[in-house]
Write a structure and sequence with these properties.
Helix content: 25-40%
CATH class of the largest domain: Alpha Beta
Oligomer: single chain
Number of strands: 17
Number of helices: 14
CATH topology of the largest domain: Aspartate Aminotransferase, domain 2
Distance between the termini: 47 Å
Bound molecules: pyridoxal-5'-phosphate
Radius of gyration: 22 Å
CATH superfamily of the largest domain: Type I PLP-dependent aspartate aminotransferase-like (Major domain)
Largest sheet: 7 strands, mixed
CATH architecture of the largest domain: 3-Layer(aba) Sandwich
Number of domains: 2
Strand order of the largest sheet: 4-10-9-8-7-5-6
Structural class: alpha/beta
């Protein structure tokens, strides 16, 4: 399909929405992306012609739904280069994936053990580990973030010791845009016999994800941040690790057999999928990943990098503006601080000008505390954004700053 911006924009009906009488400029893709017709139609077609519960019945429609659902799993496995469909668990999203693994590790982490995360984690990859460590009297340790928004791998090596039981890190920061060297981190961790969990929420739509190459033990993402539906996501885990973890929830689907005394759990991946799954969501997510694949991730990376460079340059001219996070390797997420102004006030004015941009702590309060900022304005771009929209935004931002100073 290649990269044809006008064709791409036409795929997303919501982009023609007007806000306050102005053409919508949507720059909050880090929170969620919009959905192309290919995804909307896939979900709608499922409910129109294929809807049925999966894995349960002997009738034709149920077989069709089951095959579609399982084919989505196989597609995801291939998309992220997992070894087997057994390593792909469908979840509600990143948050549920982290909680699932943290719940499983509750049996494996005991008093005196240590878990390492970074200061730049989203609350989803922060609170589950914090609560697990509190409950089990383990210690949660934080790898600092340097001034440019990167981490120092030698500092990580210094933090690792015989008590370290897990390292959990975001692939890409939702605030700083930094792409973390997760492959190198896995190598360091594995040299010390430590498993690695990677939060790929911000990565799946913006970079190639190859879990075999990264060699992480767990990887997760949400469909809705990659042009797919809400309420569906993925947890990838190496079979060896998934087999060690207890089920996260109990009920139908996750059992092999039940009697009055005990239960034998189902095999992977079903052991972690209790209850009726989000079949339409899985099919919609498959459609979104196919959409990305058809355009080509390398084309997306190239295009988004042009947008990042263009926006960064444009913003330099705005009075009192500082960009938080200047890693060499980053996606088009630009966090902005404007001296003397509260991000919320600017965000409100921008909204009146039709520009949807995120303000606040971006579910990363510890990072804000470390940066000594109340919050930032965050521009997070996607494959359907354009230089024209960046121009509109830069003009609107300059105007808002003038109005507030
Ligand atoms: N991790 C990161 C880095 C994120 O940016 C987000 C959402 O913004 C999450 C986790 C949580 O994702 P979800 O709300 O889809 O579970």
């Amino acid at each position: 399909m290649g990269f044809k911006i006008n064709t791409i924009r036409n795929d997303f009906p919501i982009l023609s929405t007007k806000v306050n009488g102005k053409q919508l400029v949507y720059f909050d893709n880090g929170a969620t992306t919009h959905k192309p017709l290919q995804v909307i139609d896939r979900v709608s077609d499922y409910y129109k012609t294929e809807n049925s519960n999966v894995h349960r019945a002997s009738y034709n429609l149920s077989h069709i739904a089951t095959d579609l659902y399982e084919n989505s799993r196989k597609f995801v496995a291939k998309f992220i280069n997992a070894n087997s469909y057994r390593e792909i668990i469908f979840t509600k999203g990143t948050t549920e994936s982290v909680n699932l693994v943290a719940s499983g590790f509750s049996d494996l982490i005991t008093e005196g053990d240590e878990v390492i995360i970074t200061v730049m984690e989203h609350h989803s990859n922060f609170v589950p580990w914090q609560q697990l460590c509190k409950k089990n009297k383990a210690t949660l340790r934080f790898l600092p973030v340097l001034k440019d928004g990167t981490i120092d791998l030698s500092e990580l090596e210094d933090m690792i010791n015989f008590k370290t039981k897990l390292i959990s890190i975001t692939h890409i920061s939702n605030v700083l845009g930094t792409i973390n060297p997760v492959k190198k981190i896995s190598e360091i961790a594995h040299n010390n016999g430590i498993p690695v969990f990677v939060d790929g929420a911000q990565a799946i739509a913006h970079t190639n994800v190859d879990v075999s190459d990264i060699d992480c033990d767990f990887y997760c993402f949400s469909g809705h941040k990659a042009y797919g539906p809400m309420g569906i996501g993925v947890l990838y885990g190496k079979e060896e690790w998934l087999n060690k973890l207890s089920p996260y929830q109990y009920g139908g689907e996750m059992i092999s057999s039940v009697n009055f005394e005990s239960t034998i759990f189902n095999e992977l991946p079903y052991k972690f999928e209790a209850g009726t799954p989000n079949v339409a969501g899985a099919l919609g997510m498959e459609a979104s990943l196919r959409y990305i694949q058809d355009i080509g991730m390398d084309n997306i990376i190239k295009y988004e990098d042009t947008l990042l460079k263009y926006a960064t340059k444009k913003l330099e001219n705005i009075k009192g503006l500082r960009i938080i996070g200047n890693a060499k390797s980053k996606i088009p997420v630009i966090s902005i601080n404007i001296e003397g102004l509260h991000p919320f006030d600017i965000g409100t004015l921008l909204d009146q000008m039709g520009i949807a941009i995120r303000t606040g702590n971006h579910c990363a309060q510890p990072l804000m505390e470390a940066l000594k900022l109340p919050g930032t304005l965050r521009v997070s771009l996607a494959l359907y954004n354009t230089k024209d929209e960046i121009d509109l935004f830069a003009d609107a931002l300059a105007k808002a700053v003038d109005m507030l100073t």
